[in-house]
Specification:
The structure holds 2 protein chains of 2 kinds. Chain A is mostly beta strands. Helices cover 5% and strands 35% of the residues of chain A. The chains are: A mainly beta, B alpha/beta. Strand 4 (65-73) of chain A pairs antiparallel with strand 5 of chain B.
Chain lengths: 141, 425
């Protein structure tokens, strides 16, 4: 239990990576890093197929990233009808960590441009749910 | 298990229940499967051919069950072959099962009259039936079977668009991707946006792909859409997931396809014009944020290289191609991933009408997924049917003159799975 609190719609109730949700509650977006080979995983994996071990540590994704691509969803799937329009995006952060997620709703489509600076931040949703989103950095990147 | 099963029980599994079944196609094969040393040097035994192809009419609502749909495709594929259904050694069903039915291989196998032949299901999202062909090829090459039927089927009309989009969206990683409302058009829209930013590709160029495919669709009586769309209509259609507009997207459909594959020597005997499997390539890729490229489907590129190498040919040798145009951007990327055009130069191929009949490399002469319709599990087999018909010279009004080598490019998910199949007359 614990993982069902993640995301706008949850399809996963249990995961060994549920600390991810606990870190979101504490204000951190995190990935995992293999203590053996140093491979970094986002989204976090608790097992490393590179060296076939499960000795992982958590790291926080920090700093300013870059928008790699995006799209604006005007017709959503079942469960998202009342959330449209929303903007999905992929951003690249420090050490080449790439993240897929949703853009903050207050950013207008005309403001969005591939290559613009981004930061990733945890968000608390209705009903004690937690997720993360991309925002425009306050310092302008 | 120490000691294994008792000897008697083990041997029971290897006693043919019906010895007649093993001597169907000639005394030279009676009772034994050729070993590798026997196969080597015997060309027709080494090769695998497509003996028959069929498909149902693709429609928005078929008014049939998946069993009845499958029968339509199976009947057309068997038509004209010098075998009966009892000669088929195994049936592979390819589907993502948008229907209520689970384990669809059971009712379909019985409906086609193929019990007690072995059957199983392949689910590979939209790439299921080209994966079915790949597995059938391997089963025949191994010597296990001589004739295998591959049926792709999907019935999507039982669901609303939003329901189907949600179910399709769960073909992504449900833990990390579907939870954000990621859909199939959204995935391809992110590729389109990146392609536009990097290469200056325009919505007009995307629209030209649909203009072409909507035209050829009107020449295909089995296609969903029978109306030629103008560029203006396409550009004025509402954005579904920007930058993709309504007419940049294919439609869910009901439909079935069927391929009958046979060992070379048998194919020569049972089919008027066997079409040979010359090259196969397949690959997979990661979740969306971990892609090497956002302007090219890496797995399609890998699959293409593998298929060209196996066939011993290059992209310039392809006379006719079917590519996975679930969205207009997908056809542009396919031109580039198959090396019909250099990266970023795909739009020029459609601008210069090089992918029309009479152009350098005609693509999607059956209307493509965009206008023919896209019944997920049936699509790969339908693409291969079109290529087979072209290579047989059976293209009716839309025939590439003297086509000898054809290619089918079938993608599952947003470039999660890719199969490239090269066929030869």
């Amino acid at each position: 239990m614990g993982f069902e609190k993640f995301g706008m719609v949850s399809h996963t109730q249990e995961s060994k990576a549920e600390d991810f949700v606990n870190f979101l509650e504490q204000g951190k977006v995190t990935g995992t890093k293999c203590k053996g080979c140093g491979t970094q995983y986002f989204p976090p994996q608790v097992d490393c197929p590179n060296c076939m071990t499960s000795d992982m540590e958590w790291f926080e994704v920090r700093g300013t990233g870059t928008l790699l691509t995006y799209c604006q969803v005007n017709y959503g799937p079942q469960g998202f009808e009342d959330k449209v329009p929303y903007v999905l995006a992929i951003g690249e952060f420090e050490e080449g960590i790439k993240i897929f997620g949703v853009l903050n709703r207050t950013i207008r489509e005309q403001e969005i441009k591939i290559g613009m600076p981004l930061r990733v931040a945890p968000v608390k949703l209705q009903g004690e749910r937690f997720s993360f989103e991309f925002q425009i950095p306050h310092d302008g990147g | 298990m120490a000691g294994g099963l008792p000897g008697k029980v083990v041997s029971f599994y290897f006693v043919p229940l019906d010895p007649v079944y093993y001597v169907k196609d000639g005394p030279e094969l009676a009772g034994h499967v050729p070993v590798r040393s026997e196969i080597q040097g015997r060309n027709s035994l080494e090769e695998v051919a497509i003996a028959g192809v069929g498909q149902s009419h693709f429609s928005r609502k078929c008014g049939m069950t998946i069993k009845e749909l499958s029968f339509v495709a199976f009947k057309e594929a068997m038509d004209g072959l010098a075998i009966g259904k009892e000669d088929i050694d195994s049936l592979i069903i390819c589907s993502s099962l948008y229907d209520r039915q689970r384990s669809a291989e059971n009712p379909i196998t019985e409906y086609l009259g193929l019990n007690p032949k072995p059957t199983f299901l392949i689910e590979n999202a939209c790439a299921a039936s080209s994966s079915g062909l790949r597995v059938a090829w391997a089963l025949i090459k191994s010597g296990l079977y001589k004739i295998v039927a591959v049926v792709g089927v999907e019935r999507m009309s039982g669901q609303t668009s939003a329901e189907a989009a949600e179910m399709m969206g769960r073909a992504y990683d449900v833990t990390w991707e579907s939870s954000f409302g990621l859909t199939m058009p959204a995935g391809y829209a992110m590729y389109a946006q990146a392609h536009m930013a990097r290469y200056g590709t325009t919505q007009r160029q995307l629209g030209l792909v649909r203009v072409k495919n909507s035209y050829y669709s009107t020449q295909n009586p089995k296609a969903v859409y029978q109306k030629v769309l103008t560029l203006e209509e396409i550009l004025e259609s509402p954005p579904v997931v920007s930058p993709l507009k309504r007419f940049d997207c294919c439609a869910n459909a009901d439909g079935a396809s069927c391929m009958i594959l046979a060992r070379g020597d048998i194919a020569r005997r049972i089919a008027k014009i066997p079409i040979w499997v010359a090259g196969l390539g397949a690959a997979s890729d990661s979740g969306m944020n971990r892609r090497q490229s956002l302007t090219s489907l890496t797995c399609a590129r890998t699959a293409a290289e593998e298929a060209y190498a196996m066939a011993g040919i290059g992209p310039g040798d392809i006379d006719v191609a079917e590519v996975h145009d679930c969205f207009t951007i997908a056809e542009i990327m396919a031109y580039e991933d198959l090396s019909f055009a250099r990266p970023g130069e795909g739009p020029r191929l459609i601008e210069e009408k090089e992918t029309y009949l009479g152009g350098r490399i005609p693509v999607n002469l059956d209307g493509g997924l965009l206008s023919k319709g896209h019944p997920i599990g049936a699509t790969g087999g339908s693409q291969i049917r079109t290529v087979v018909k072209q290579l047989r010279g059976d293209g009716d009004g839309i025939q590439v003159k003297d086509a000898e080598i054809g290619l089918a490019h079938n993608i599952g998910g947003i470039g999660h799975y890719a199969n490239v199949t090269i066929l030869r007359r």
